[in-house]
Design brief:
22 strands, 37% helix, 3 domains, alpha+beta, Rossmann fold, 20% strand, 20 helices, five-stranded mixed beta sheet, nine-stranded mixed beta sheet, globular, Ribosomal Protein S5, domain 2, Heat Shock Protein 90
Length: 641
């Protein structure tokens, strides 16, 4: 820098953030985001504190209320936050833990044996990111309360009178200056409460939503599960066909409590939930690693001893084989948990892996010996998965090898674009040869590629991988995308950064779109997660007013336009499209493919567990769940038949 630079850099350039300013200045550092995920995270922080009291044995009931004004209340019957004068801060302990960024009972080993919180910032984040918050403590026969606005105390600690209650109550209103949406989802809160009720046997959680229309009763739920995570696994498998009973164990070793519940179904998918001190770890961690090692080891030990691996050329079952159809909940209680990030996505304690691995392997081995019927069902399913995986590998290699031998390996039906830049290239997966023909003629050849499908493709959620890999339409999609499949998948090789599913705007078209989405979800989920998959929105109606043409996606939109035109004395001519193939190339370009005028819906996954359940219910082999869904929502369906 030049010595003549007039800019100075001294103490005046350094800002010290006071109190909870740091949280408000950089909220995403503390709660991950400021969208709906972050909004529900500040609720979770308060709920987790109440649950910590339950885990410690001081609380057996938590009440949660969503008030009409959108404020959220969480109350427990635990010990109550201390309110006496804190020796370091010289203000009440309640005010200290609500406003001091790194203060809390989780730092003192005597306060909680195990806890989900370890950074001491949980409640402070909620306080800092709320328009207002009121904390009430019922303790020592008295009621105490303090109010905060955007993290700053606006009253002193007040003593309000006598009580027979014990516990803590927090009411807070999320700050619209921070969050893009401040409306809590009852469904999300219910799921979180259900999770805690399952994980803490004997804890009762009462949930009320007062946001109902005038004259209606508030929505209420009472959650209580005596069997804990054993009930949780049964709940997760309600719509599945079980092939084993629920295995359950709980054991403490080296001050670590390991609790595991396992059940197998005839599903092809694996569903495992991991928790540390009742906090979900979506990316697993050392407890998951220990679980997987123990499971694979115990199954192979028993299968070898019982001579159940015949015909496998001395090969043992792999992790993928033994986890097909697995539903499990792994819950550990750890005195000093170490996580990745404040949102606790992954457990990092190395000692947890060895403890889980040892106790679970021993318990599973005993269980298999005492329950040979379940053991043989589980191992039989794993052997079948092994054989299917071997067949799928051979088929996959054949697909890849065929592509390599044929140069580009692109399917003959694909009308590729001339651009080789994936960022500007689009692939339209189109229903039928007729629509494909119109799309090929109407497209922008520079950056739009067309892949026609022959009718309804295979339902990839019903069959094993080896059968799906033999399907020609699947092969065409694989080779067109260019990312590979299975272990060889590399999203960086994607040839088109917009993969657009384009089907008729009717029931059959919706079914075909669902089949393609199912295939992409099962085999190419990263493409959806990274925002590359879209649904085209072709119009159902064309309305001509003189020489002008207008297109509409729904009958409601069309009727509103026509009514307005009639009132203005204009003559209208309405045509309904029966399908994409009925449009000429110019119309298809104008309405559905032209970036200037088209409507595309990007496919997103907001909740992977919900998405998995939905795909299984709609596309799986079990008919009863699908029938129940149709019966429940049939009156809401807008059938275009």
């Amino acid at each position: 820098m030049s010595n003549t630079d007039n800019q100075t850099y001294d103490s005046s350039n350094i800002r010290v953030l006071q109190g909870l300013e740091a949280v408000r200045k950089r909220p995403a550092m503390y709660i991950g985001s400021t969208d709906l995920e972050g909004l529900h995270h500040i609720f979770t922080e308060i709920l987790d504190n109440a649950v910590d009291e339950a885990i410690a044995g001081y609380c057996d009931h938590i009440w949660i209320t969503i008030h009409k004004d959108g404020a959220l209340e969480v109350r427990d019957n635990g010990r109550g936050i201390p309110v006496d004068l804190h020796p370091q801060t010289k203000v009440s302990t309640l005010e200290t833990v609500m406003t001091n960024l790194h203060a809390g009972g989780k730092f003192e080993k005597g306060a909680y044996k195990v806890s989900g919180g370890l950074h001491g910032v949980g409640m402070k984040c909620t306080n800092a990111l709320s328009e207002w918050m009121e904390s009430t403590v019922y303790k020592n026969g008295n009621i105490y309360r303090q109010r905060y606005e955007r993290g700053v105390p606006v009253t002193k600690l007040q003593e309000l009178g006598k009580t027979d209650l014990n516990g803590t109550q927090h009411i807070f209103k999320p700050d619209a200056q921070i969050f893009s949406d401040i409306n809590f989802s009852f469904k999300r809160i219910l799921e979180k409460c259900r999770q805690h009720a399952y994980l803490t046997g004997g804890l009762r959680i009462s949930l009320t939503d007062e946001r109902v229309e005038e004259g209606q009763q508030p929505k209420t739920y009472e959650l209580y599960f005596e069997d804990g995570i054993k009930s949780y696994v049964k709940f997760m498998n309600l719509s599945e066909k079980a092939v084993s009973d629920v295995f359950y164990m709980k054991k403490e070793e080296e001050n670590i409590v390991v609790e595991v519940a396992v059940q197998y179904t005839d599903s092809l998918e694996e569903t495992v939930k991991c928790y540390t001190n009742n906090i979900i770890n979506p990316e697993g961690g050392t407890h998951l690693a220990g679980f997987r090692t123990a499971l694979t080891s115990a199954i192979n030990i028993y299968a070898t001893a019982e001579d159940m691996l015949k015909g496998m050329k001395n090969t043992t079952l792999g992790g993928d084989d033994v986890r097909e159809g697995l539903t499990a909940v792994i819950s550990v209680k750890v005195p000093d948990p170490q996580f990745e990030g404040q949102t606790k996505i992954k457990l990092n304690n190395p000692e947890v892996k060895s403890v889980v691995q040892k106790v679970l392997r021993d318990e599973l081995t005993t269980y298999f010996q005492e329950n040979p019927k379940d053991a043989k069902s589980i191992i039989g399913k794993a052997v079948l998965a092994f054989k299917a995986r071997a067949a799928a590998k051979a088929a996959r290699e054949a697909v890849i090898r065929k592509g390599a031998l044929e140069g580009s390996g692109l399917p003959g039906k694909l009308a590729d674009c001339s651009s080789k830049n994936p960022a500007e290239s689009e692939l339209y997966i189109v229903e039928g040869d007729s629509a494909g023909g119109s799309a090929k003629q109407g497209r922008n050849r520079a950056n739009q590629a067309i892949l026609p499908l022959r009718g309804k493709i295979i339902n990839s959620h019903k069959y094993r991988v080896d059968r799906i890999l033999g399907n020609q339409e699947f092969k065409d999609i694989v080779t067109a995308l260019g990312v590979g499949i299975g272990d060889s998948m590399n999203v960086e090789n994607l040839r088109y950064h917009k993969v657009v599913i384009m089907a008729d705007a009717d029931v059959d078209g919706s079914h075909i779109s669902t089949l393609v989405l199912t295939l992409l979800y099962r085999f190419f989920r990263p493409l959806i997660e990274q925002g590359y998959v879209y649904l085209a929105q072709p119009p159902l109606f064309k309305v001509e007013v003189g020489k002008n043409r207008y297109y509409f996606l729904s009958e409601k939109e069309k009727d509103a336009f026509v009514n307005q035109a009639e009132k203005a004395g204009k003559k209208t001519v309405t045509n309904r499209f029966k399908g994409l193939g009925e449009m000429n190339p110019e119309q298809l370009w104008e309405t559905t493919m032209n970036p200037e005028t088209r409507v595309l819906k990007r496919v997103e996954i907001h909740d992977a567990e919900d998405a998995e359940k939905t795909f299984e219910m709609l596309m799986g082999v079990e008919v009863p769940p699908r029938r129940r869904f149709i019966q429940r929502y049939s009156k809401q369906a807008n059938l275009d038949v």
